Amino acid sequence: MTGQVEKSTQNHSKFVQYHFEFVQSLSKIIQNSCKVRSKFTKKHSKLNFASMTRSKTTLPNAISKLRYRIHQKDKGVIELTETKVSEFPAKDSYLNELSGSQKNLKNGQTGKVKGKYGKYGGQYVPEVLMPALEELEEGYERYKNDPEFLAELDHYLRDFAGRETPLYFARNLSKKYGSKIYLKREDLVHGGAHKLNNAIGQALLAKYMGKTRLIAETGAGQHGTATAMAGANLGFETVVYMGAKDVKRQQMNAYRMELMGTEVVPVETGSKTLKDAINEAFRDWVTNIENTHYLIGSVVGPHPYPVIVRDFQSVIGREVKKQILQKEGRMPDSIIACAGGGSNAMGIFYPFIEDKDVKLIAVEAGGKALKCTEKAALHSASLCAGEEGILHGARTKILQDKNGQILESESVSAGLDYSGVGPELAYLSDIGRVTARYATDDEALEAFHELSRHEGIIPALESSHALAYLKKASEAGELGEVVVVNLSGRGDKDLETVLSLRGGI
């Protein structure tokens, strides 16, 4: 069905009301070409990238099943061409190699799945972003096996990030819980968290692709800090979007970014957290596609981002596999990681996907309780309590109300305070390869203090959720003899938050 904007307004008034300002912006910049590129006359389009959030319950249902292509006809008339999602498969050239025994939930096939993880994943974005995603995919495909690129990446991971990180035997914690508990010390990576693994990888990729500017979103500030570090080292202009609520929670990280020459932009819209920071970063990217790389910090977003981030973070799991064999001569019984978007979880899980005897446990933020009010969730547990929907360009599990509107999430940990989860992690949870669990704010805070007192290591509040599961699993007899916990970050950034919750020293 094709018609002019005026006709579309009559037939699809709700859609046009929602996207009218976007179409107006596009009409100013399309120049005698059907290929919509990237330059807007305004710094920010009015397009709300939360509109990339649709589910089977989104109003109206007919619109939720559609994507819109925007073309230019003679005399500058903009047309909206309505097309079913099924007619626009993800344009994937890089094959995601899942286990050969894992089934595609949609068609029952086994083996390699291209750009989709069963029913999850894909590219649910405005057409104006497709050239940038295709360019990124082509660039990654070109350089991911390039000897020069890999040698330079190895140099930065070793000499700048400080890899490899230790696999530390937590002797006192092991005595308490009756299992051999090892901590993968990602808190010792330069910057204090696992985030630099991905940030330096993507920044280097952007350099090889000829980009001069980096933008990023951040929640706890760890990804923003890692992006600032990579940007400063590689000579990029760098801008980081951070929810205003998170800026207050993580003032020291915001200052660290500014100290390294990064512009920190507080986001005052919506819930003022990570979800809204991502929206603003997408708006910036639309405006500046030609010279800018959007450095997404987790395994979320449209393809190829979940693949790229997972691959750069998989260095964690590869090291663990080598280290645990050296220390124990066997695979661990279980690997535990916290999960917000899921980058540290996928980073440690992915090399173990085919090791079926290794239990993979993703611990989400249970917040105050696994309940929802009319407008917000009291938690951030999308795997445990979410439903299928579309968020930030990918189909995955999200927190939403009965009308398909995104619920605000809640967690004491800024880095886990997100209303969705990576599509591959959602898929692995659905097929039972990853076990989803949650820890409440109080349980995470207890684990925060426990590790500090028993091992002399102060964990990030994000990592504390994974540590909190040790107690639950031990009580349920599910822990196993040899356990690896991904200590994804250090807790220096969280001391003010924890102190304020205690009411002082």
Automatic annotation (TrEMBL):
One of its GO terms (cellular component) is cytoplasm. Pfam families: PALP. GO terms for molecular function: tryptophan synthase activity. Pathway: Amino-acid biosynthesis; L-tryptophan biosynthesis; L-tryptophan from chorismate: step 5/5. InterPro entries: Trp_synth_b_CS (IPR006653), Trp_synth_beta (IPR006654), Trp_synth_beta/beta-like (IPR023026), TrpB-like_PALP (IPR001926), TrpB-like_PALP_sf (IPR036052). It catalyses: (1S,2R)-1-C-(indol-3-yl)glycerol 3-phosphate + L-serine = D-glyceraldehyde 3-phosphate + L-tryptophan + H2O. Its EC number is 4.2.1.20. Its cofactor is pyridoxal 5'-phosphate. Keywords: Amino-acid biosynthesis, Aromatic amino acid biosynthesis, Lyase, Pyridoxal phosphate, Tryptophan biosynthesis. The modification N6-(pyridoxal phosphate)lysine is found at residue 195. It is an enzyme of class 4 (lyase). Belongs to the TrpB family. The beta subunit is responsible for the synthesis of L-tryptophan from indole and L-serine. Tetramer of two alpha and two beta chains. HAMAP family: Trp_synth_beta. NCBIfam families: trpB. This is Tryptophan synthase beta chain.
